[in-house]
């Protein structure tokens, strides 16, 4: 992988060939994330998408150096460049070093599915956000409260001045989510990592929170790394998407290109399993992805999706597929794209659904 300097000022963070390994006393090491490369750009959103267990959260926590004790970064660099500063390799920093702490919660903030993982239940939301602002701006609490109320208004909390005195349990799920977002923005981060922030919310609140995040991103110019299992959400929020399967990025590209012509059978299967991605007349053809993600403990040889892939053929159980570029900044790792005699290769290249009806017992 050629390593080029971070010359583009818009480039904020670059993952280069990052792998993450878990060890346990009784078992061989497990490579849970392999060879991940992506770039996060100021003002843009990259979505990491895939089923449960594919490595999305571990990848995000690696950026913040918040991995479990039994984890280590096996290979790679994570270059991060704050404005007007030289790039720093996050991998080279100790997780609890002052330099890393200055990045975490200052340059990079994170929001979660469950707001109570970042909000304290025993302090009012106003006090918690005041404290965050005081740490970062070295101002007194009175001045911080003015900023807190501003932030709460910005994230759409009605009656912000009074609500600042509420404890998290006194707010609805949607308002708690907004309060957590306000807290994440208190340090004016360069990067916001959002780990399934709308998964627990009803559809209307989910749409409102996505709208809010988009508006705030425009205002703050921050980059966003958005983690979700839902390609419908990706369509609404992201500029670029990286599709993960068993720790590998199997397809990556501009959202428009990936949705117009998905190249990897796994991406296509994810698209067909989501109601909003399918036209009304095709509802009856919705298909869940059959089978389960294999365990990283027993990683299959070759392409990990083979056991669930409707198009699998001999080469899929051989070598790990190389990246095939299929458009400007759009690539996938799939043997069907490189073998001319592959059963569905022509259809995949053209973005059609060749062969998928037989693979799902005629339902697809
Ligand atoms: N401390 C750990 N020790 C061993 N394996 C781990 C540890 N933490 C995570 N893993 C494994 O790493 C893999 C990736 O987990 P991760 O939480 O990143 O998945 P995910 O895609 O975010 O899933 P979800 O949507 O369920 O959060 C999984 O197989 C998980 O079991």
TrEMBL record:
Residues 13-271 form the ABC transporter domain. GO terms for molecular function: ATP binding; ATP hydrolysis activity. GO terms for cellular component: plasma membrane. It is found in: Cell inner membrane. One of its GO terms (biological process) is transmembrane transport. Gene3D superfamilies: P-loop containing nucleotide triphosphate hydrolases. InterPro entries: AAA+_ATPase (IPR003593), ABC_Ni/Peptide_Import (IPR050388), ABC_transporter-like_ATP-bd (IPR003439), Oligopep_ABC_C (IPR013563), P-loop_NTPase (IPR027417). CDD domains: ABC_NikE_OppD_transporters. PROSITE patterns: ABC_TRANSPORTER_2. NCBIfam families: oligo_HPY (TIGR01727). Belongs to the ABC transporter superfamily. PANTHER family: DIPEPTIDE TRANSPORT ATP-BINDING PROTEIN DPPD, OLIGOPEPTIDE TRANSPORT ATP-BINDING PROTEIN APPD. This is Stage 0 sporulation protein KD. It comes from Martelella mediterranea DSM 17316.
